[in-house]
Amino acid sequence: MMGEEDDTASLSRLLDDAASREFSINGLHDDLASLSCGYASLDAHSGSHSEGRSGAHSRSDMGSSGESQEKSRTGSGRWSWQRSSPGSRRTSKSSIKSSDNLEEDVLDADDEDEKPPPALPPSLPPCDTCEDRSSTSSSCFTGTSSSVLSCTTCAAESDNRPEADPKSGDHPTEDAGHPVPAPSEHDQEQEQAPRIICKTPDPPDSKLIILSNGNTTPHRLSSTPEEVWSPGGEPPVPLVTSTPAPQGNNSNASTVEPKYVAPHHYVSSMRVASMRGAADMGGALVARVATFLRTQYKNLISSPLQLPWCPGFKMIVSEFETSLIQVPLAAHLKVPPGLLTVPSILQPLQLSFTESSMGDRPKRVLVEGDPGYGKSTLALKLAYDWATDPTGSYLSTYSLVFVLTLRDFRGGSVFSHLCKEVLPRHILSKEAMNTLWNHMKKIEDKVLFLLVGYDELIEEESGDMNELIDGQMFSNATVVLTSRPGSSKPLPPSMHRRLLIAGLAPDQTHRFISRYFDTINKPGSGNEVLSLISASKEKYGDLITCPIMCLALGVLYEDLGGKLPSRLTDMYMSLIKHMIRKNLIKRGEPMCYDVLPDRYNKLLSDFGKLALEALKQNTPYFTAQDLKTKCQHGGEIVELGILLRMQSMSKLSKKDFYTPAHKSFLEFLAAFYLSGLIHDTSLLQTEIDSIAEKMDITHPILRQNSGLMILRYLVGLLGRNAHIVFNIVSQMGVPQRILFLLLKESGMYQMNVLEERATNMYQKLVVEVCKHVSGREHVVIQTNSAELEDWGRLLYSPDCMLEGVDVLLDFDGSSRDRHESFFTSMSFNESVKSVKLTCVVGGDFGESEVTRLVSYVRAVLTKRRLESFEIQVTSLEEATAEILSPVVDMICDTLPDLAQALNKLVVALELDAEQVVQLCQVLQNAPHVQVLHLPHLACGLDGLKAVAQIVENSPLVSLNLAGSLSSGTPVDERSTGTGASTPSPTREDAPAPLSFWSFTDAQGNTRSVFNSLPRSFYQSLPGRGRLHSLSAEKRNSDTTLLQKTSFPPPACNPIVHANGFHEIFAAFRNPASRVCHLNISKCTMGAEDLVCLGETVRFTKCLSSLRMEGLSRMAEIIPVLIALQENTTLQLLDLTSPHILLGDAALQVTLNALAKNKSLRFLVLNGWTIQVESERSLKELIRFLNATELQHLDLSNCRVIVTVHDGALARLSRQDDVIAALQESVPPLHNNTLAFLNLDHFEVTLNSKVVLRGPQLLFMLRHFPKLVDVSLASSLGADIIDDSTTHRLFSLLPGSFPFLRRLTLGGWVFSLDNCEKVMRAGGKQLRGSQLREVILTGVEVRESSGTPGMEHTLLQALTTNLHHLSILSLAGLKLTANQAAMFGKTIRDKLATTTLELETRGLGYTTVKALRQAVTEGGRYEFDFLGGPLGIYKLSKIDRREKLIGKWACISTLDRLSEL
């Protein structure tokens, strides 16, 4: 009984003491919790209910005479008073918990799962307001310093109540029949004492009172609503703020209730709630925490951002505004278009784009944005809006809003982080935090977490933060994450919405800039700045979306006297100078306006190196330790305003982080550091290589491409020395538009290129760009591309080196000015010698478009040094010849006088007869035009006659009529009769078709040559889709027929053949004709035309080149082949066609005819298919090779199908030694004239079992000693070369091909048992070879066990043993960086030559970089990039002896001069 009386007395004293003075929440709760240690309370969340205990325990009431009352209520979830075990009894003094141990308890929060939560004291009965809901009294809403409620039920409803007026009264009133409870005698005595409201701080000599929990507090414990004392010496902050009202609030919620000063007997809501139980206490804690958070957000956010370089303007977060774009969470998803505002972040999800139906509010939202665009400010803006407008805000449904900076999260749990970093000790103790945490789980939908810096969260220290983000914890709460785009952290899978901060919208930009100029009393300047920015959208379009950069442009506008810089580099340099000048003025030091002090050059360079590393790691923020240790005087960067201190919501974290005002400051300063490496090219290339490796410099969006922006600022800082950067960047295969962007930023366009000084300064730069843009080859320029102006500027430069330009015209009305500017630059250019204009016209091609085309043609034809002009118009409509007549007129008017240097004219306009006649008449007066191309003519007899006249009378050298039409009789395989009744299309009295080329057989019968040809002459392979195999009987009959037939020479019959082609072919037979090149590829010619052509080939004295590509049947070639036997001038014959199919008979006729010709030097039979079944065909081939004078034979893509019926070859299989079998069974092939042989993708199939390709074919050519260039490319993996074949191949090259200079081995696959051993042995056999060029396109080398990646062994064998090797092509090789490094080391140590060119097209830049580093290590070789589409590098060995000899020569000369 003594123990019970002691506890009762202690509780009575505590309650009396609390009634007489105002306790702090921490002290009161700790005392109540400590006193309750002698009792075990029922807690719905603790799991420590004591209903099962036997025996009823009672306590004596404080005002009674010791009467016991049983207060047990089992099963109701309320409270019960029971005596605890004797071992748990402690005195009130010893049970008081000091707040000094709070931190220690928070650290042990993870162990709470093993310990039951602390018992709470019993709750008190509800107040009068709670018992009768009809009352409008606000007796529970008090005006005490703690701003809490007198009972838990009222505290839970505090969100529905507005702030009370402290001036409305001091006491609760009797209202609606609810009398105020009469105070006790003790209370009446206390009421008679005067109440003083203190509004001034305590005097300095205020005494401290030691509380029962061990804390100290000033003598004055109560304060007014205007001020609240906070521990730690912090300034008083208001705590009187209402919480947001939940949904479904009653009508009395909007009533303003009066505040009054609490009487001495006032019982706080925390105390009441603690006595009622944990469930009711949670609502009071929510109200208490919400009040504290609102106060913190108001005080923390209300401080404006003031930049050191613009002290007159303050950026207030309450005025922060931005726009956002919704980004799909997956590629296949769609999102609503348009910009979103800040309140739209948490708006309900739209279920359909076509309807206005809305779904639930998103629970997890990701907001991404670049540094400087306000990610953290956006989170604080949301918290500020919640704090300042709790009832009418778009966030009014949230009772609690937590702002957490994730970079301060160092593991553990979110609970412990809230205890340590967010809520201080004087707000909640650990026990109260447990209760709040459990209550938050009940009201999850009213809790909002704003997590700042998801990309800064350390994965190893994430604790259970990922559970909160993924929705495993507080699944119904709302979580908003902010992060940088492109972060290495994966996108959380539980996101419901993904947003991207787009920055300021146009109207927001206007308001922001106007507000700045209004602040500095220049309201009219805002519109002027906006007009300058809109005129330079390409430079400033992205910057004006950032508020800080808008402010920077405004500052520069004032600083530069109403102007803005013309380049981004100049803008940032001017801004840096302005910052430094402001800083020096603040210090009282002078500064020259245009020159940076040396110490600031050093400071910016050091920080630029640090910034470059941060951008590479994608972590654009710095700690104070980084600035102190890695950058000398790094604190001045913060003083300049380049870096801003990052906002943190943590209370205990003392580590400062700094972020750039805008990411572009880091990019510019990184370029500033790199510009200082211009004298160390190797180090500069290493840094740029690192940028290209870690940052994508080809990204199309500049705002997201830090690597490209660094290079852009770098070339701007280097100016005329930027050609070094171009040489490095071009090796990386960047698009042309990036090269133009860098060229523009380098400043070349701002100089007058006609001045000699500008020419000298930027000559290397322009030459470098031209070299890498086109490789001095034909370039394609599209007039609708964004780079058209850049092409025009490049062409206008006198240092331009472009020689051929192909312009693709697009007649867009909006781009007319750009087109005219481009062609004006073209007319002034002197380097371009070949121009091609190409366009496609449709139904909307009218007079205005024709007029524009005419002006463009004139601009090109009148340019100086133009040697070749080509115009090609493809019409989607019919009858466009009349529409294009003005173009033909312009060409005819310009040719004689204004295009004196023009040598080649190509007009592909589908000309009619009148236009062809007009053009040919002009060409007779233009002797400088020697090459004429008139493709796709369908002009009839008159037009072709005009062409024939210029063939006879003009100094024309080459004529191209490819694709033109004729009206002759087609050679059809069905026309085999001699008496066909089809009339001739040219004359009514003409003989039957195909009977004009006839001969008399042995029986005296007159027969047509075409009708007498075997059927195989009419076979074709459309698209190489089928193969035809003749029967043995038919094959023998065709061969016998050809042996007995002597074809007469082709002779044209003018009576039958009187069309336009007859006139042209007849002109070639004229001795006065000078045309030596004729191209009639893909022309539609009849049998009469072919016979006439054959006669021309027989008698021409000038024709040296004839191209007939695209023929469909062998019969169409027969007239020319027969005529070749008498021709003495033709040197080139091109019969390329994928449709030609030859049997034995046709092959023998072809070989026989070619063998009799002695003038032919170049023969192209690309794409033919040959079927061989007769041994006679092989004999004819051997005879042809022995007799021919050919030097160049092209058999690429040909297929030879050989059928052998008996012998060793008939039994040959793939497992046999094919090379040995061929050497034994096939007679050797000899030729002493062929120098160039192209056998790319040439195949020989034996009995459909064995296929001979590149490697095997080389052994068939072992008796071709004069070969200089052999190409044996094959399909990748078609043949596997083993060890024995490799040995024979390498040993064959030096002995059998003594003059071989170039060898192509494309697509070969070596599969060797020991690659290094076999290649080393084979390489030694190559030492006697004269090879100078080796092409290894797509070659693979691997171990026979299956290990790939051994190509470097072949490269090592070639480079160490070929002493004449000058060009080595690595195009298409699958070299890794390690293989390239090993190959480069071999070159450095064992290269057999002094110079070597490497073609690296198709190799990754990482491979090339590893190769370059290995070669240049030690300084023995130079590795220069020559540019071009092939990616050519030149390796040159540095001869140290020459350097030493030169040095000695200088020394000896100085010695002699000194002696004199």
UniProtKB/TrEMBL annotation:
Gene3D superfamilies: P-loop containing nucleotide triphosphate hydrolases (3.40.50.300), Ribonuclease Inhibitor (3.80.10.10). SUPFAM superfamilies: P-loop containing nucleoside triphosphate hydrolases (SSF52540), RNI-like (SSF52047). The keyword ATP-binding applies. InterPro entries: LRR_dom_sf, NACHT_NTPase, P-loop_NTPase. Residues 83-99, 135-150, 976-985 have a biased composition (Low complexity). Residues 41-192, 213-234, 964-993 are annotated as: Disordered. Residues 101-114 have a biased composition (Acidic residues). Residues 363-487 form the NACHT domain. One of its GO terms (molecular function) is ATP binding. The keyword Protease does not apply. It comes from the Eukaryota. Residues 213-225 have a biased composition (Polar residues). Keywords: ATP-binding, Nucleotide-binding. Pfam families: NACHT. Residues 46-60, 158-177 have a biased composition (Basic and acidic residues). This is NACHT domain-containing protein. It comes from Penaeus vannamei (Whiteleg shrimp). The lineage of its organism: Eukaryota, Metazoa, Ecdysozoa, Arthropoda, Crustacea.
